[in-house]
Amino acid sequence: MAGIGLAFQIKGASEISKKLKKETITQPLAEGIKKLTLFLDREVKVATPVDTDRLRSSITSQVTAEFGKVGTNVNYATFVEYGTKKMSSRHVTEGSSIRIKEKGMFAFGLEKVKEKLGKFMADIGVAIEQRWNK
Q1: What sign has the CA pseudo-torsion 87, 83, 37, 68?
Q2: Structural domain of residue 80, as residue ranges?
Q3: For residue 44, how many other CB atoms are within 10 A of its CB?
Q4: Complete DSSP assignment for 28-83
Q5: Does 10 fall in a domain?
Q6: CA 106 to CA 51: how far, in whole Å?
Q7: Residue 109 exposed, middle or buried by CB count within 10 Å (0-12, 13-18, 19+)
Q8: Domain count within the chain
């Protein structure tokens, strides 16, 4: 039985391979994750109601190349975020000491992230494209 042989060659494959270095994509992603996490950190802190400043000062962020996390270890943060039977959840707006009910500071911060997410993603895309075109 006779066989048929096929051979394929992709022109430019070595150039594409060089451009697909880990740094081309992962570094802009890591920088984007960092910017997004620090943005959320700031928005949550600004929106946190203050009596003694313990809650606001307990809010911290952790960032790696793969993820960002914003949180607190203060046990009553849950009550401020979600409310209780006797208290509504609450946050404050930037430049104001007025407490706004029905939404906690983390929920408010995440809404701000949603508003800016398109820009953050576009910035990451531009950074990847710039590295690609070098």
Answers
A1: positive
A2: 23-128
A3: 26
A4: HHHHHHHHHHHHHHHHHHHHS--SSSHHHHH-EEEE-SS-EEEE---TTHHHHHH-
A5: no
A6: 17
A7: buried
A8: 1
Q: What is the pLDDT of residue 73?
A: 96
Q: Rounded CA gap, 88 and 72, in Å? A: 19
Cβ-contact 12, 81 below 8 angstroms: no
pLDDT band at 39 (very low <50, low <70, confident <90, very high): very high
Let me know if residue 17 belongs to a domain.
no
Report yes or no on 111 lying in a domain: yes
Q: What is the pLDDT of residues 9-29, one digit of tens each?
A: 667 777 777 666 777 888 899
What is the reported pLDDT for 59? 96
- Judge whether 35 lies within some domain: yes
Residue 77 and residue 51 in contact, taking contact as beta carbons nearer than 8 Å? no
- Average of pLDDT values for 53-72? 93
Average pLDDT over residues 59-78: 93
Cα–Cα distance for residue pair 70/87, rounded to 1 Å: 24
